[in-house]
Amino acid sequence: MMDEMKKLGKDANPYRAGFLQFVGVAENEDEAMRLYREPADYFYNRCLHVSPRWADPPGYSSEATKRKRVVSQVQQAAQNAAQSMLQQKPSFEEMVDKGYVIVGGPDQVAEKLREVAINLNCGHLMLLLQFGNMRRDLVTYNTDLFLRRVKPQLQDLFDDKWEDRWWPKPLTELQVARPRAVAS
Question: Do residues 54 and 75 make contact, with C-beta atoms less than 8 angstroms apart?
Fold first, then answer.
């Protein structure tokens, strides 16, 4: 991404980018592997598909798009998913190895997320702490552990050098819309 930004004459501000990551935190790696195996398997092997017949409904693409033979990314993903469903589904260990899901103890998860953010030069990590068929108590446990023991390790990852110009800011008093008075 940094090379592309340089070509475009833009700075390499990491806050230009966002990345979604599934995360499971536990007291240690063994516990994390046990707790998050079923929810990850449920999501990746049962929920993550779109039937190709629903991927390109009538009216979804313009006539000009059809004439240019532009293929929808949704349609491509659906076709790829349909083909891959015929193949072997990934094991939980493969999901972790390939980075689909980051699981482990707090320090281990923080280290992996830091690596992802730096390697992708991404300042907006969007974390899914609830995925698949997670029970409410597991979601609460995951979220609490993340907030108390992982987030503090990542809080100021890029703050020392870059301004986040993309994060929403409150409107000034002059920008706030006011309702019009109703004439009686």
Answer: no
Neighbours of 115 (CB within 10 A): 12
State the amino acid at position 139 in one-letter form.
V
CB distance 153 to 107 below 8 Å = yes
H or E element that contains 41:
helix 29-42
What pLDDT, in 10s, does the model give residues 55-112? 667 777 777 777 776 666 666 766 666 666 556 788 999 999 999 999 999 999 999 9
What DSSP string describes 4-36?
HHHHTT----GGG-EEEEEEEE-SSHHHHHHHH
**Locus of tokens 């790696």:** 29
Pair of tokens at residue 20: 């979604």
Report helix, strand or coil for 166: coil
pLDDT in tens, 163-178: 999 989 999 999 988 8
User: In the chain, how long is the greatest CA-to-CA distance?
Assistant: 70
Structure tokens at 104: 């482990």
Helix (H) or strand (E) holding 104: strand 101-104
d(CA 46, CA 41): 7
Full-model pTM? 0.76
CA nearest 131: which of 29, 12, 46? 46
